[in-house]
C-alpha cells in the first residue's frame, strides 16, 4: 500500500539528516514523492519547463548546480546565464555548462526550509517517474531578495501533496546516447578497453601534473560538464572525490565495471547494467596520461 503524505512526513521527521535520495530509496518511494509530501509547507510546486526556469535563475546570481546519476554526482558553483532555448537547450556560462532534454522535465519543486544556520533553499526537477534530473541549491552569496518573486512567478495551480509516478520517456536519452556499450563490445565504435582503476589513476595524475580535464556527468534529462584543473582528489569508502572550491565530483569506484577510451581521447566508464556513469577527457598533457594507461584488457 502506498504511503500517504502524512506518513512520509512522519518518517522523515525521524531521520532528518539522511540524504533525501537515500531516504526515499529506503522508504520505497521516489524522491519526487518525498518532495510532494511537503507541498504547502516547505515545498512549492513550480513549472518544470526549462524555458521558464532557466532564464529566471539568472536573478539569483551565484548558486550551486547539481546533476547526478546513480553512480556519479557533479556540483558546480556559478551563475545561470546565457540560456539557449531549443530542442536540447543549453547554458554555456562557465563554470556552469548544461545541456537539457525537456521531455524528462516533468515535475519541479521549490524548497524553503528554516534551519539553525538560516534558510536552506533549492529548486529540484524530476522526470515522470520521480527520478531527479537537476537541482539548484542557493548559497550564502546568492541574491536572496530574488528568491520570493522567482518562486511566485514559477508557481503552478496544482499544489497537491500526492505523487503518481509514470513511465519516463525512454525515446529521449541525451546521456545514454553519448556512448553505447554494446557497440563498443562489438567493435562498431573504434575504441579500446582500459584496465580496472584507470579512471581513478587518470584523476590522480591529472591533479598531480596540473592537466586540465573535462568531466561530463548526466542522466537522460540533463548533462552537466566541468572543464579545467582539478586539485584535491580523495578517496572515501567506495567513492573517489574531487573537492575543490566551486567544484565537487563524487564517483563510485565500485560501480565502474568497464572503461573504454575513444580515439578523440575521451574515456567512458560504464556500470554493470551497461549504463554510462561518467565521461572524462582532457586538454594539453592528457594524451600522455592516457598513453600511460595502455590498452590492456582487464
UniProtKB/TrEMBL annotation:
It comes from the Bacteria. Residues 28-153, 185-280 form the Haemin-degrading HemS/ChuX domain. Pfam families: HemS (PF05171). InterPro entries: Heme_Transport_Util_sf, HemS/ChuX_dom. GO terms for biological process: iron ion transport. Gene3D superfamilies: HemS/ChuS/ChuX like domains. SUPFAM superfamilies: Heme iron utilization protein-like (SSF144064). This is Putative hemin transport protein. The lineage of its organism: Bacteria, Pseudomonadati, Pseudomonadota, Alphaproteobacteria, Rhodobacterales.
Amino acid at each position: 500500500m502506498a504511503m500517504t503524505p502524512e506518513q512520509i512526513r512522519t518518517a522523515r521527521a525521524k531521520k532528518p539528516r539522511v540524504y533525501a535520495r537515500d531516504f526515499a530509496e529506503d522508504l520505497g518511494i521516489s524522491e519526487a514523492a518525498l518532495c510532494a509530501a511537503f507541498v504547502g509547507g516547505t515545498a512549492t510546486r513550480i513549472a518544470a519547463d526549462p524555458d521558464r526556469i532557466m532564464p529566471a535563475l539568472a536573478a539569483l546570481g551565484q548558486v550551486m548546480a547539481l546533476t547526478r546519476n546513480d553512480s556519479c554526482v557533479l556540483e558546480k558553483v556559478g551563475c545561470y546565464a546565457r540560456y539557449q532555448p531549443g530542442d536540447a537547450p543549453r547554458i554555456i556560462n562557465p563554470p556552469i555548462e548544461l545541456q537539457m532534454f525537456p521531455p524528462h522535465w516533468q515535475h519541479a519543486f521549490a524548497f524553503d526550509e528554516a534551519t539553525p544556520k538560516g534558510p536552506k533553499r533549492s529548486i529540484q526537477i524530476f522526470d515522470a517517474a520521480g527520478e531527479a534530473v537537476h537541482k539548484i541549491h542557493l548559497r550564502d552569496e546568492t541574491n536572496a531578495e530574488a528568491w520570493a518573486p522567482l518562486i511566485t512567478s514559477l508557481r503552478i495551480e496544482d499544489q497537491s501533496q500526492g505523487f503518481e509516478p509514470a513511465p519516463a520517456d525512454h525515446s529521449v536519452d541525451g546521456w545514454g546516447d553519448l556512448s553505447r556499450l554494446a557497440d563498443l563490445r562489438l567493435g562498431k565504435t573504434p575504441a579500446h578497453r582500459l584496465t580496472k582503476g584507470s579512471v581513478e589513476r587518470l584523476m590522480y595524475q591529472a591533479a598531480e601534473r596540473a592537466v586540465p580535464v573535462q568531466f561530463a556527468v548526466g542522466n537522460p534529462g540533463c548533462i552537466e560538464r566541468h572543464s579545467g584543473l582539478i586539485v584535491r582528489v580523495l578517496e572515501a569508502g567506495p567513492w573517489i572525490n574531487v573537492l575543490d572550491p566551486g567544484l565537487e565530483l563524487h564517483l563510485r569506484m565500485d560501480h565502474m565495471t568497464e572503461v573504454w577510451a575513444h580515439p578523440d581521447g575521451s574515456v567512458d566508464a560504464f556500470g554493470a547494467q551497461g549504463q554510462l556513469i561518467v565521461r572524462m577527457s582532457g586538454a594539453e598533457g592528457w594524451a600522455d596520461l592516457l598513453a600511460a594507461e595502455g590498452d590492456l584488457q582487464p
